[in-house]
Design goal:
By secondary structure, this protein is of the alpha+beta class. The chain has 2 domains: about 1-175, Endonuclease, Chain A (2-Layer Sandwich); about 185-250, Orthogonal Bundle (Arc Repressor Mutant, subunit A). Helix content is about 50%, strand content about 15%. The protein has helices at about 1-15, 45-60, 75-90, 110-120, 160-175, 185-205, 210-215, 220-235, 240-250, and strands at about 35-40, 40-45, 65-70, 95-100, 125, 135, 140-145, 150-155, 175. The chain starts with a helix and ends in a 6-residue tail after the last helix.
């Protein structure tokens, strides 16, 4: 995942350096909320502009839709709204794969949604953590350009699309199928909590803040504190300072 973060960081940096070129482009090449910064790279400013561009791509899809949705469970209203669209696209022969984080396995609305779209023919898997939000629709990709996700980058440059699709496929290969049959929370915990806590321990050693860790794992900060308390108890650490020392001394991430 570090390669993707580095690559996207370089992409954003290059785009910023080339921003002055956008002013020389004809007005017809970019809308009022768009900024063309290089071949196949376009900034979308504002949620409305982002939504419009994604919907246009989905309306023209012919082959596949790949989505990576971090931050844990999706709002139930969003999931319900997506069901009919997914049904139509699958019926039209579109391949669809979605990555969520492990924490979505505890959310009833998400489980119901996954059960339904899987019956349609979509595929859903989960990971403990992965890259930021990513949508690939045939030969166009969308990635977030700021932390608030109010600015996105639309990409059609084939080399970058190939890189992003390959990154998604590698994450997909490591992910676990989402259980769409009734599953008790305790069973879900047995399957995914060890991986979640392993990631938490690694991120603690790497110096990430609690807020950043919670966001990357897709849980609340309160839930994060519960996981950290369990890790401390297992390792016999009396406080966070000692926990950091024990994790660093072991030079490995914690495995339950």
């Amino acid at each position: 995942m570090r390669e993707l973060a580095t690559h996207l960081g370089l992409l954003a940096e290059e785009a910023a350096q080339q921003a002055t070129r956008a002013a020389a482009l004809p007005e017809t090449e970019a809308g009022p909320d768009e900024q063309v910064v290089g071949p196949g790279v376009r900034y979308l400013h504002g949620l409305s502009s982002i939504s419009t561009a994604i919907n246009e791509a989905l309306g023209a899809v012919r082959r596949e839709i790949l989505t990576a949705q971090p931050d844990g469970a999706r709002p139930s209203a969003v999931l319900k709204e997506a069901l009919e669209s997914v049904r139509r696209q699958i019926a039209a022969g579109i391949s669809m794969r979605t990555l969520y984080q492990h924490t979505t396995r505890f959310d009833e609305a998400t489980k119901d949604y996954v059960r339904t779209v899987t019956e349609y023919g979509a595929q859903v898997r989960t990971l403990e953590e992965f890259f930021d939000r990513l949508i690939i629709v045939d030969d166009v990709a969308f990635i977030s350009a700021n932390e608030e996700r109010t600015t996105a980058i639309s990409i059609t440059e084939p080399t970058i699309i190939r890189f992003l699709r390959d990154t998604f496929d590698k994450a997909w290969d490591r992910a676990k199928p989402f259980p769409f049959v009734p599953l008790h929370a305790a069973k879900a915990a047995d399957e995914v909590v060890p991986a979640i806590r392993e990631s938490i321990s690694r991120l603690l050693v790497e110096g990430y803040s609690d807020k950043a860790i919670a966001r990357r794992i897709g849980i609340s900060e309160r839930s994060l504190q519960a996981h950290i308390a369990a890790i401390k108890q297992e390792l016999g650490a009396l406080n966070r300072l000692q926990l950091g020392y024990l994790l660093g001394r072991n030079e490995t991430t914690y495995v339950l």
